[in-house]
Amino acid sequence: MKMTLKIGGMHCAACSRAVERALKKTEGIEEANVNIATEKAVFNYDEKRLNMMI
C-alpha cells in the first residue's frame, strides 16, 4: 500500500535524509522517499506488518 504524508519543519537535506532513514528502518515499510521541496514523504508499506494510527 502507498501512503503520502505532509511533513513540515524540514530545513535542510540532512533533515529529509534523517526522516527517510527512520522510515526505512521501520518494520513493514518497503520503500520510502522524502522530498524537502514538497515537504512530503511517500512510502510503500505492508499493511499486515505495519500498524499505523494516523
From TrEMBL:
Where would one find coiled-coil regions in this protein?
none
Q: Name one GO molecular function term.
A: metal ion binding
The alphabetized UniProt keywords are: Metal-binding
Keyword check for Metal-binding? yes
Q: Which InterPro entries match?
A: HMA_dom, HMA_dom_sf
Give every HMA domain span.
1-54
User: Which segment of the chain is annotated as a signal peptide?
Assistant: none
Q: Which PANTHER family match?
A: P-TYPE CATION-TRANSPORTING ATPASE
The name this protein carries in UniProt is: ZntA, Cation transport ATPase
Q: State the organism of origin.
A: Brachyspira pilosicoli B2904
